[in-house]
Amino acid sequence: MSKITLFWMRRDLRLEDNTGLSEALKSDEEVLPLFIFDTNIIAELPKHDARLTFIHNQISRIHEELKVHNSSILVKTGDPIAIIKDLIKEYEIAKVYTNRDYEPYAKERDAKIKKYLNDNLIEFKDFKDQVIFEKGEILSGSGTTYKVFTPYSKAWLQKFYETNLNPESWPLKNNFFTSPPLPIPSLKDLGFETSPIPIPTLKVKKSLIKNYDSTRDFPAIEGTSRLGIHLRFGTISIRKLALFAEELNKIYLNELIWREFYMMILDENPRVVDQAFKPQYDKITWKNNKEEFQAWCEGKTGYPMVDAGMRQMNSTGYMHNRVRMVTASFLSKHLLIDWRWGEAYFAEKLLDYELSSNNGGWQWAAGTGTDAQPYFRIFNPESQMKKFDKNLEYVKKWIPEYGTDKYPDAIVEHKFARKRALEVYKKALDK
C-alpha cells in the first residue's frame, strides 16, 4: 500500500483557501481528508443541537465536492487519539497535517497526538488558518503581548497592510487520495436529530458591509453579517473576509480584529476559561439566585431589551451584539450572577459560539476581563432600549405580550441594582 498524508479537518470545513490542505497537497503522498466527530465534545451537546446539523451538512458538501477528484472524506466518530491509533494500522501514513486550534482542550489533544505520531515516526504538522495573526505575531514595542485592544488593533492593522495574504481559490495541486465515496454516519447514527433552526447564509450583500457602521447597533435592522458560525467552523476563509472588509468598511474589519484579540488572549492565558482575567475580580461575592437566573434564561426579567434578546437567542441561536452586551451586563451587575453562568448558557445556545469571543465578551461586560468596561459602568437596559430600539420594533417582535398584564414586572429596580453592584464590586476590589 502506498503511503498517504492525512489532512485532519476541524475548524476549516472548506477545500478553498485552506492553508493546511494546500500544504498537504504539495506533499509527495496522496492526501486523504479526515473528519472526526469528537465524542469528548459532542457527548455534552443537546440532541437537537443546530451546530451538529450544520457540521454534518458541511461534511456532506465536502463529500460531494471530493467526488469530482475521485476522492472522498473519511469520517470517524470517537476519541481522536484512539482513532488516529487505529488509522495508522489501517493505512500507511507518512504525515498528518492539520490547522491549529487555540482552545485549551484542542491544544492538549494535539500535543498528545503529535507525540504519539512522532514516536511512531509519523510527521505531524499544523498551520495557521483560522486567524490572520496568532499569538507572538502582534507584540508591543517591548516584545510583550498586548492587554489593551486599541494599541493591539493599530499594530494588527500595520502588519495587515504589510502582509500579502493572497488567498488561494482552489488547492494548488490535485493530489487527493483516490477512493470511492466513503460512508458518512447519519445524524441519527451520531445520536442527534436534525435541527429546524435555519443557518445564516454565507452570501452577504456588499451594501450591508458598507453600511455596517451606521446599522450595526440597531437590533431591529438586518445590519450585521451573521457570519459568526461560518468563521467558527471555517466554512469561510478569514483571509478573504478580512480583505473584503478592508475594502468596504473599516469598522467591520475592527470586529474581526476583536475576534483575533480575544483568541490571542485565550491562547496566552488559558486560565480565563474559568477564572477572571483580572484575578482580583474572582473575589466578588456573587448573589447567584437560581430563580432569577432562570427568569433571565427564559426572557422574563421585566426588562424588555434583555428579554427580547434572550428569547431571540433561545428561538434562533442568534442574538444581536448590542443586545448581548446589555443582557450580559444585566446578569452580572443587576442580578449579581456569576458571569460564568451566563457564558455557559450562551455557549449552549449560540450558533456562532466561539470560546475565545464568548469568554472575552462576557468578561468585558462583567468588568473582569482584559480591557473590559469599568466595573462602575453599568448599562441601563431602559435607556439602551430608548436609544437603539426607540420604536420598539425589536422588543415587540420577540415579546408579543409586551404592554399587557401578562408581561412580568421588573425583577429588580435599576437604581437599587446599580448601587448594590457598585458596593459588591468595590468591596471585592478593596480586599
From TrEMBL:
One of its GO terms (biological process) is nucleobase-containing compound metabolic process. Binds 1 FAD per subunit. One of its GO terms (molecular function) is deoxyribodipyrimidine photo-lyase activity. Residues 3-132 form the Photolyase/cryptochrome alpha/beta domain. Keywords: Chromophore, FAD, Flavoprotein, Lyase. InterPro entries: Crypto/Photolyase_FAD-like_sf, Crypto/Photolyase_N_sf, Cryptochr/Photolyase_FAD-bd, Cryptochrome/DNA_photolyase_1, DNA_photolyase_1_CS_C, DNA_photolyase_N, Rossmann-like_a/b/a_fold. Gene3D superfamilies: 1.25.40.80, DNA Cyclobutane Dipyrimidine Photolyase, subunit A, domain 3 (1.10.579.10), HUPs (3.40.50.620). FAD binds at residues 212, 252, 255-262. Pfam families: DNA_photolyase (PF00875), FAD_binding_7 (PF03441). Its cofactor is (6R)-5,10-methylene-5,6,7,8-tetrahydrofolate; FAD. The record marks 286, 339, 362 as: Electron transfer via tryptophanyl radical. Belongs to the DNA photolyase family. This is Deoxyribodipyrimidine photolyase. The lineage of its organism: Bacteria, Pseudomonadati, Bacteroidota, Cytophagia, Cytophagales.
